[in-house]
Amino acid sequence: MAKMKNIRQQRPKKKFRIPSSVMQWVIVGVVAVVLVVLVVGALTRPPGEPAPIPMLSNSRDDLISITRMLGDVTLDSSIHATFTDKLGPKLVGPDSFFGRRQWYEALTALNALLKGATRSESASIRAYMAFCDYEADNLDRSLQHFRRSLAADPGPSGIAARLRFTIGWLFQSRGYQDSAVAYYSGARRDLPDSVRLLRASAANNAGVAYEVMKDTAAAGAALREAAALVDSVAYPKEVKTIRENLERLTAGK
């Protein structure tokens, strides 16, 4: 009897096992929770937040392309007039700082205007901040503000088409030809006839980008479009650049 008692005492206890069916339901539940978190995160992400972009500060100027491009990143009177129409007297302070080349003071004043701004006003403020950052040589922040402005007001009205040209110019000046072409395409589509020089500049620059990308057919079409948009009497310098680009492309075939 003592021997039997010892055997009972030495018998191992049964381990607790979770039924496989229960384990499967647990896994399904975990996966469902993860999916819900991802979906909710996507839905609650702030609108107009641009996707990650290349860091312009990590790349060098594409000097060859720049010598063949038209236009620049400039806060001209027509763009500023659009800001004034939307923001009015609120721009007195930022304008004063910008005129004195006090870029960071202007940025601080503009940033204060974002609170309570409408979507349309926010687009103008972001664009103005982008020009300030560009002048202050903060290329990455400038590009970020330009793209946020465009995301806030993506329609063909206002300054959206001009912003597309400007963003394309920034990308191209740093060698991101494919990104430049994408933005120039929108600018060429949406810019009105009243700004034919800007349309021609977008077409010319797209042609230069296509040439770098080895798409000679698209390059030729874009450059011919540019040549047809501008008059040699009114814009002799620009026409000369476009013709030189066409001649080089033709000679290289």
Please give a quick description of this structure.
This protein has 253 residues and is mostly helical.
| Largest β-sheet summary | none
- Element-by-element helix/strand order: HHHHHHHHHHHHH
Tell me, briefly, the overall form: globular
In terms of quaternary structure, what is this?
single chain
Query: Helical segment tally?
Result: 13
Radius of gyration: 29 Å
Beta-strand portion reads under 5%
Q: What is the C-level CATH assignment of the domain at 167-253? A: Mainly Alpha
> Which consecutive residue ranges, at least 5 long each, have pLDDT under 50?
39-51
| CATH architecture annotation name of the domain at 167-253 | Alpha Horseshoe
Per the CATH scheme, the topology name of the domain at 167-253 is Serine Threonine Protein Phosphatase 5, Tetratricopeptide repeat
Q: State the end-to-end CA separation.
A: 104 Å
Task: Round the mean pLDDT to the nearest integer and report it.
Answer: 85
Q: Roughly how much helix do the residues carry, as a percent range? A: 55-70%
Strand segment tally: 0
- Helix/strand-derived category reads mainly alpha
Looking at CATH, the homologous superfamily of the domain at 167-253 is Tetratricopeptide repeat domain
Protein name: Tetratricopeptide repeat protein
Transmembrane segments: 21-43
Keywords: Membrane, Transmembrane, Transmembrane helix
InterPro entries: TPR-like_helical_dom_sf
